[in-house]
Write a structure and sequence with these properties.
Length: 160
C-alpha cells in the first residue's frame, strides 16, 4: 500500500512559500515561489515585472505579481512550469542542508500537497479528507508532490 507524506502551508519545508535562501547565478531568492514567478516573467520576456518579483519580499506578493505577467500563454507555461519548479526546488534543497535532510527523511513515501484549493500543484483535498488516502479519489494532479518525490529520488541516487 502506497504511503504518503502530506504537506501544506508555508510552515512546511516542502511548500513553495517556505522561507529559505538560495542563489541561482547572480540572483538571490527567498522562496521557490519567488523563483517560479521570476522564471515565469523571464519565460514571457516581462523584464519589468521580473524585477518587481525579485524585489517583492513575500510569496503572496510574488504570486500576485506573477499573475500580471504580460504576454502570458497558458499552453507555453504548461510546457515549462514543471521544469521551472523542479529547478527551483533543486537549488533550494541542494543549498539548504537541513531542508535536504527533511526531504530525504520522507523516503518510502509519495509527497502530497494537501491543498484544498489547488488542483494543479496539489490534490484539491485537505489532509483530513479521507479521499486523500487514495490516488483514485484525488481531485487534483499533485504536480508539486510529484516533482518533490522525483527530486528526492534523484538526490538519493546522487548522494549514495
Amino acid at each position: 500500500m502506497e504511503k504518503f507524506t502530506y504537506f501544506y502551508r508555508s510552515g512546511s519545508p516542502f511548500s513553495q512559500w517556505y522561507p529559505c535562501r538560495f542563489t541561482v547565478g547572480e540572483l538571490h531568492f527567498n522562496s521557490t515561489e519567488q523563483y517560479m514567478m521570476y522564471s515565469k516573467a523571464q519565460l514571457f520576456k516581462d523584464e519589468e515585472l521580473g524585477l518587481k518579483i525579485l524585489r517583492a519580499t513575500t510569496p503572496r506578493e510574488q504570486k500576485a505579481l506573477g499573475r500580471q505577467v504580460r504576454g502570458f500563454d497558458k499552453t507555453i507555461w504548461e510546457q515549462h512550469c514543471k521544469e521551472i519548479v523542479y529547478q527551483g526546488n533543486w537549488e533550494k534543497f541542494i543549498q539548504n542542508e537541513d531542508l535536504l535532510q527533511a526531504l530525504l527523511d520522507t523516503k518510502g513515501t509519495t509527497l502530497v500537497e494537501a491543498s484544498p484549493t489547488d488542483r494543479i500543484w496539489g490534490v484539491g483535498l485537505t489532509e483530513e479528507d479521507p479521499r486523500i488516502r487514495r490516488r483514485t479519489t484525488w481531485r487534483g494532479t499533485n504536480w508539486l508532490g510529484e516533482i518533490l518525490t522525483n527530486l528526492r529520488e534523484e538526490f538519493t541516487l546522487t548522494t549514495i
